[in-house]
Amino acid sequence: MIRIPFWRPTNSITTICFLNEALSKDTAAMAKGCDAVCVFVNDNVDSETISTLKDQNVKLITLRCAGFNNIDLAAAKKNNIAVARVPAYSPYAVAEYTVGLLLAVNRKINRAWMRVRLDNFSLEGLLGRDLHGKVVGIVGTGRIGSLVAKAFKQGFGCKVVASDVKKNPEVEKMGIPYLKFEDLLKESDIVCLHCPMTEETHHIINKKTIKLFKKGAILVNTSRGGLTDPEALVEAIENEYLGALAMDVYEDEKDLFFRNLSNYIVKDALFQRLTAFPNVLCTGHQAFSLRKLSMLLPTQRCRKLQTLRKEKLTKSARLLKFGYPWDKSWFFVQFS
C-alpha cells in the first residue's frame, strides 16, 4: 500500500492510499479507516462488498469511469453510501478510437504492420473495402454514439442508421433515421455498439441476433463486453456470419485487462480462441485513455470528493484507491 498526503487550498488533508488489489468482497476489509474508496470498471462492488465497506465506515464509493454497471446501487442506497462517477470525459476519445479500430480491421492495418516487421511486403490477403456508401448502424446515440454517427456520415459519406430507446435530436438533425434494433442489424454493413450495460442490453448480440447480420458485416464494440455473447462471436466468425470483429472490451476482461500477462498462460480459452482469428482485432479497453484524461479524471474525482465531504466526510478525509499499477500515475501526476 502506498500513502500520499494531499493538501488542498482549504488546508484540509486527504490521504490517498493505493492498492494493487481489485475491490471485491474479499478485499473490502482493507478499506478500514478510510472514508471513501475509488474503484474502476472491473472492480466487483456487489451487495456483499458494499456491506463490508459499510462495516468499515466507508461513506463514499467514487468511480474513475463513467459506467457504473458493476455497482449495486440499491445496496449502496440501503447502506447509506454515496456513489459518484465521472459524469463525462471526452466523448471524442472513444468515438475517434472506434473509427480507428474499424479502419484497422477493415484495411487489415494490424496484419500489414506485423508482416512488415518480418520483412514480408506481400499484399496477399490484405484486401479491404470502401467505407463510402456503406450502411453504418449505430446502437446507442448518446455523446459517443452521436459523434461516431457524425464521423461516418459527414466524414466518410456513409449512410448511417441508428437504434436507441431514446432518440437524440442532434442525430435526427443530421437526417439519420432510427430503426428497430433487429432492422438495423439486417440493413447495416457495419454495426457499432455504444449503449450502456444494463439487464436489457446484456448479450444483445447473441446466437440469435447475430444471424440477422448481413453476411460479411463488421461489428465494432467499444462500449461494454457484456453487450456481446463471446460464444456467439466465435460461432459467427467461424461460420462467416461476420466478416470482421473489432473490440476494445470483453465480457470477462476483469481477469485479463490492465495487467501484463505476457509471461503467463492465459487460461481463458474462449478469449484465446476468439482473438486467434485473423479477422478479429482486440485491444485492452484503452479507447478512453488520453494524456489529457490522465489529468482530467483525477481532478473530477477530487472535486466530487471535496463536494461530498461537506455533507458526508470528515474534514481530513482518507481515500483508498483500488486498482492495478497502470493507473497509479494518474494520482502521482496530479498530486506530486
Overview of this structure, please?
- This protein is α/β, with parallel strands linked by helices and 336 residues long.
- It folds into 2 domains: 2-88 and 291-335, NAD(P)-binding Rossmann-like Domain (Rossmann fold), CATH 3.40.50; 91-282, 3-Layer(aba) Sandwich (Rossmann fold), CATH 3.40.50.720.
- The protein is 32% helix and 17% strand.
- Residues 1-11, 294-298, 309-316 and 324-336 have low confidence and may be disordered.
Radius of gyration: 22 Å
Give me the CATH fold name of the largest domain: Rossmann fold
The CATH superfamily of the largest domain appears as NAD(P)-binding Rossmann-like Domain
The dominant shape is: globular
Order of helices and strands: EEEHEHEHHEHEHHEEHEHEHEH
Say how many strands there are. Answer: 12
**Percent in strands:** 15-25%
- Mean pLDDT across the residues is 84
CATH architecture descriptor of the largest domain: 3-Layer(aba) Sandwich
Contiguous helical run count: 11
The profile of the biggest β sheet is:
6 strands, mixed
Helix/strand-derived class?
Answer: alpha/beta
Q: What is the percent of helical residues?
A: 25-40%
Low-pLDDT residue intervals, each spanning 5 or more residues? 1-11, 294-298, 309-316, 324-336
The end-to-end span amounts to: 17 Å
Number of domains: 2
CATH structural class of the largest domain: Alpha Beta
As laid out across the biggest beta sheet, the strand order is: 1-2-12-3-4-5
